[in-house]
Each structure stands twice: as C-alpha cells, then as structure tokens.
C-alpha cells in the first residue's frame, strides 16, 4: 500500500511540475522605513530572479539582489509565494488581480529573512506586475527591521 501511495504522489507531483511555467522576475524595492539603530544607509534593491509558478497557487524563485547602501553589495536570493487560487477582482473587467504572501531570504554575510505580501496584476497572458511590501529580519543591523515597498515585472 505504501508503494501505491508513493507512486500516486510522485505521479501527481510530476504532472504538476510539468504543467508549471518558468518566467523571469525583475523587481525594484525602495527602503521606506529603517530603525534608528541601522549601521548603514540602505536605500534600495534591484532583484533579478527566475520564477517557477506551479499550477496550484504556488511559486518559487531564486536569483540575485543588487543592494544600494553606503556601498554596493550583491546577494543571492530565494523565496516562495502563495497566491489566491482565483483572482480577487478584475481591473477594467480584463486584468485579474491576485493577492499573495511569501517568505524569502537574501544570503549576505548574515542571512536576511523576510515575509512579503502583495498584489499580482495580470496585464496580459504573459506579463504580470507585482506590487509588494517586505520587512527584513537579520542579525546584521544594516538590514534588520528594514521595510521596503516594491514593484516587479514578470514576463
């Protein structure tokens, strides 16, 4: 029986993977709030990632972050997002809008973890615009308790 269940799960996972979609994800984040204890001035971040969207409201992404602070810094980035299964509403009756929550990490000298929340707007069948907010948590005071707002493009 265990073999049957394992085979069924693997078959389902494989078919879900085959039905997904890879797409580039480019985003810009502006730091709008940082604590007074921050050890540097982090201004903004540009993220370039590759995203894989599963057919059932889940996506994972990974790539690089380019961080503008007192000096320029790069980091690896990875995360996952959970979308609403159906659009919440449509803009002009044509563009679907989903909400999402996610978790991710920037791998710097000290890892900076973040929760994120946002909206994904379907411009057309291939292009999506994300509007989001993140709050970073890290042992490094250059990034800890920094809140950002951002906009992203998936095509």
From TrEMBL:
Which UniProt keywords are given for this protein, alphabetically ordered? Signal
Entry keyword annotation includes Signal: yes
- The signal peptide annotation in the UniProt record is 1-18
Question: What name appears for this protein in its UniProt entry?
Answer: Outer membrane protein beta-barrel domain-containing protein
Give the species: Marinomonas ostreistagni
